[in-house]
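User: Here's a structure from my thesis project, written as structure tokens. My advisor, Dr. K., wants to see whether a designed sequence matches the one we expressed. Can you design one independently, without my sequence as a hint?
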């Protein structure tokens, strides 16, 4: 990032902010793809990275933080997650990621 002139290596706060923005963008892009029922790597390129991030978060939090869920299909699970996201942010609708956004 320093070579690209985005920020200096000494500005740790800005680096953390940029990394968090990148993480948020990838999660939002993956969720948007799932909302459109795009599950392949070609249709939803951020899905694999988003799933890795979520798995790492669960690993850090530990098994005591994971609640056993009833067996449901992948599509049902995706719809449940999207319904919760829509309920939490009723004023926002999924949009396609802009090409200028970091990936």
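Assistant: Designed independently from the structure alone:
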């Amino acid at each position: 990032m320093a070579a690209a002139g985005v920020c200096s290596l000494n500005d740790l706060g800005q680096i953390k902010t940029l990394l968090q923005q990148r993480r948020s963008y990838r999660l939002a892009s993956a969720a948007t793809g799932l909302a459109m029922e795009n599950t392949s790597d070609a249709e939803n390129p951020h899905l694999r990275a988003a799933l890795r991030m979520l798995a790492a978060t669960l690993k850090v939090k530990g098994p005591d933080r994971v609640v056993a869920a009833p067996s449901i299909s992948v599509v049902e699970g995706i719809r449940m997650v999207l319904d919760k996201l829509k309920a939490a942010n009723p004023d926002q609708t999924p949009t396609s990621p802009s090409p200028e956004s970091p990936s």
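When you compare it with your expressed construct, this may help: The chain has one domain: 12-88.
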